[in-house]
């Protein structure tokens, strides 16, 4: 049971840091609370318990790639509007 809690906390904190870093890269001034990171934490905890502990870093990596791609696209769109 401790493993499930550990994966939930680790995934939630990691995804929160990825979310904040992605918003900094995108240049966002304001944003709402990211409740999606809690759902990712629950998914990571469940998959770590039933599938493999390696599911947590894999899911966090996929989330980071998604956020990074979105941040780069938002940054490019913001530069396009300034011109």
Explain what the structure shows.
- The longest helix is centred in the last third of the chain and has 28 residues, at 55-82.
- The chain starts with a helix and ends with a helix.
- It has one domain (2-82).
- α1 (2-26) packs parallel to α3 and α2 (36-50) packs antiparallel against α3 (55-82).
- With 83 residues, the chain is an all-alpha fold.
- Helix content is 82%, strand content 0%.
- The mean pLDDT is 90.
- It has helices spanning 2-26, 36-50, 55-82.
Keywords:
83 residues, mainly alpha, 82% helix
Write the layout of secondary structure elements.
Elements: H1 2-26, H2 36-50, H3 55-82
Summarize the structure.
With 83 residues, the protein is an all-alpha fold. 82% of the residues lie in helices and 0% in strands.
Beta-strand fraction estimate? under 5%
Mean pLDDT: 90
Helical percentage: over 70%
Span of the ends, CA to CA: 54 Å
What letter string, H or E per element, gives the SSE order? HHH
The assigned structural class equals mainly alpha
Profile the largest sheet: none
Low-confidence stretches: none
């Amino acid at each position: 049971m401790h493993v499930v809690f550990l994966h939930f906390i680790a995934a939630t904190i990691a995804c929160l840091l990825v979310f904040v870093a992605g918003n900094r890269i995108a240049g966002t001034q304001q944003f709402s609370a990211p409740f999606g990171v809690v759902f990712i934490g629950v998914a990571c905890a469940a998959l770590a318990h039933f599938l493999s502990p390696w599911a947590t870093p894999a899911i966090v990596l996929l989330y980071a790639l998604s956020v990074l791609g979105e941040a780069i696209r938002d940054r490019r769109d913001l530069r396009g509007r300034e011109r």
